[in-house]
């Protein structure tokens, strides 16, 4: 699911994602990484480090007037994500344009936080770095942008965080510190072998970064605990301590650690961009600081309850009715077609009580049969093309279970170019990245891939006739199906002369699966009237 609408309100990319076509026409170094999809949209392959670097450098040049260099073997930051963090720090210190002093722990080769903070707000930064290559590039990037009077890059020993960095500035009071800590504890975790849920799709972008940038002993949890330990000694030398987290599961234990240590002011937030989520934690020993409210649970609950929906226009509804030769209502006709499609997909469904003019179906998906439809058709076509072809005018005999069937000059079915095309999905900052077909499309997802049943788990396949209703008249679980991908309620509703279809989440493994099914149903209905 695309998360751009949940970006920080001041993020310039929230409602205006980068225009790839325009940027490609203006910057030749970026143009070579922009391709045109079969639907005519400019796309970037985020699996290519060179493309990611080109986009980052281009956005910094176009939107902030910054010229930077980043080696491919070091972390390549995404601009929208970094902007989210900068804007949240603005909220913490309550003043975007006032002169402020901050510390960037592990600034990286790009030195992106100090460069953005200095350029946008005139902030002074002490930027620390332990890696020789990152240190050299960071200094060069500061100098070539004429920001040496605002950004001081210092080389510090390994495992140094705040204490050693502030030894020489014993009297200086800083307004904040920022940190993008190493997320992983070891190589296996960095590759997702023992840290990534098996049901989650693979990342949609390449993972770049040096060892010190992406890995630390104990991962991000222990790294941030070390910052907390330093803060307990420094206390009011900084008004706000903050860090960004790559795992939501790290947030609770860190907040508990701060509670145990008696830290008076603690807050957190979420950074949303493209198909990526990050979390941030901040704490202060000052009593007079204003504490920004964390994300509203009520707002997230309302967002989670919002159904996935689409509308069939009046003209399409009439055409579907005419092609089916049906005299029934538009809602009945659309419902029958949806039921036919669900049966073909082997998605369990049954009608449940609803309003007089509406139709409602309880869906239980036990296997993902809709995501690879085009790949299967391609494979079938390929196999047909590889069959030996008889000379013109000469029939062939195909052996079947019922005997021999004669064929003569029968055409081999083909697949349209559209079915062969890749689709683009939204990623960081609203950009598009070309991925394999079958993705759910925008609104992301998270991003963005085919999700199937948990590997190794055996799923019973039942027919719609196996669906049952509980004794109290409420929808029950289909008999014998202890494992399922998801359940949802599908409503077919008259909307004037149009017909609306809504899908309400009930329970299951992942809501992206329901989004994928919604896209499949929508495309199937629209194709039936020649709209797709």
TrEMBL record:
EC number, as in UniProt? 2.1.1.-
What's any GO biological process attached to this entry? regulation of mRNA stability
Recall the GO molecular function terms of this protein's record: mRNA m(6)A methyltransferase activity; RNA binding; U6 snRNA (adenine-(43)-N(6))-methyltransferase activity
Identify the residues that bind S-adenosyl-L-methionine.
82, 106, 129, 180
Pfam families attached here? Methyltransf_10 (PF05971)
- Using the UniProt annotation, give all residue ranges assigned to the region (Disordered): 374-479
One Gene Ontology cellular component annotation? nucleus
Q: Which UniProt keywords apply?
A: Cytoplasm, Methyltransferase, Nucleus, RNA-binding, S-adenosyl-L-methionine, Transferase
Record Gene3D superfamilies: Vaccinia Virus protein VP39
Tell me the domain of life. Answer: Eukaryota
Q: Which CDD domains match?
A: AdoMet_MTases
Q: Where is the composition biased (Basic and acidic residues)?
A: 378-388
Which protein family is named in the record?
Answer: Belongs to the methyltransferase superfamily. METTL16/RlmF family.
Name of the protein in question: U6 small nuclear RNA (adenine-(43)-N(6))-methyltransferase
Organism, by scientific name, is Cyprinodon variegatus
């Amino acid at each position: 699911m695309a998360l751009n609408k949940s970006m920080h309100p001041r993020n310039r990319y929230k409602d205006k994602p980068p225009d790839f076509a325009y940027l490609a026409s203006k910057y030749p170094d970026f143009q070579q990484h922009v391709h045109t999809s079969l639907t005519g949209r400019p796309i970037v392959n985020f699996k290519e480090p060179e493309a990611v670097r080109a986009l980052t450098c281009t956005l910094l040049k176009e939107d902030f007037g910054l010229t930077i260099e980043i080696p491919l073997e070091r972390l390549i930051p995404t601009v929208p994500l970094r902007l989210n963090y900068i804007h949240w720090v603005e909220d913490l210190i309550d003043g975007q344009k006032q002169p402020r002093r901050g510390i960037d722990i592990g600034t990286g080769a790009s030195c992106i936080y100090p460069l953005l903070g200095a350029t946008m707000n005139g902030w002074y930064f002490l930027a620390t770095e332990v890696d020789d290559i990152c240190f050299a590039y960071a200094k060069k990037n500061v100098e070539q942008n004429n920001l040496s009077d605002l950004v001081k890059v210092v080389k510090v020993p390994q495992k140094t965080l705040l204490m050693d960095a502030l030894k020489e500035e014993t009297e200086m009071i800083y307004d904040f510190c920022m940190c993008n800590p190493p997320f992983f504890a070891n190589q296996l975790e960095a590759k997702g072998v023992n840290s990534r849920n098996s049901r989650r799709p693979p990342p949609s972008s390449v993972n770049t970064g040096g060892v010190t940038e992406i890995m630390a002993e104990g991962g991000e949890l222990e790294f941030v605990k070390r910052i907390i330990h330093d803060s307990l000694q420094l206390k009011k030398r900084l008004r706000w301590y903050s860090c960004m987290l790559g795992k939501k599961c790290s947030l609770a234990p860190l907040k508990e650690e701060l509670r145990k240590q008696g830290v008076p002011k603690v807050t957190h937030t979420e950074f949303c961009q493209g198909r990526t989520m990050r979390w941030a934690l901040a704490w202060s020993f000052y009593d007079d600081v204003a504490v920004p409210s964390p994300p509203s649970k009520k707002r997230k609950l309302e967002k989670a309850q919002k159904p996935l929906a689409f509308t069939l226009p009046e003209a399409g509804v009439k055409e579907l009715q005419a092609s089916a030769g049906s005299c029934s209502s538009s809602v009945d006709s659309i419902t029958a077609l949806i039921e036919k499609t669900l049966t073909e997909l082997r998605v369990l469904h049954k009608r449940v009580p609803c309003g007089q003019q509406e139709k409602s179906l309880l869906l239980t998906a036990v296997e993902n049969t809709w995501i690879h439809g085009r790949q299967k058709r391609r494979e079938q076509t390929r196999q047909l093309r590889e069959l030996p072809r008889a000379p013109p005018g000469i029939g062939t005999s195909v052996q079947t279970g019922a005997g021999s069937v004669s064929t003569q000059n029968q055409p081999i079915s083909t697949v349209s170019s559209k079915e062969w095309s890749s689709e683009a999905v939204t990623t960081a900052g609203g950009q598009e990245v070309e991925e394999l077909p079958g993705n759910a499309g925008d609104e992301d997802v998270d991003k963005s891939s085919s999700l199937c049943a948990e590997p190794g788990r055996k799923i019973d396949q039942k027919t719609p006739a196996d669906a049952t209703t509980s004794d109290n008249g409420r929808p029950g679980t289909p008999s014998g199906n202890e494992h399922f991908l998801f359940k949802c309620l599908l409503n077919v509703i008259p909307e004037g002369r149009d017909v609306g279809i809504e899908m309400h989440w009930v329970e299951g493994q992942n809501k992206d699966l329901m989004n994928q099914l919604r896209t499949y149903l929508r495309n199937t209905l629209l194709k039936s009237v020649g709209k797709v």
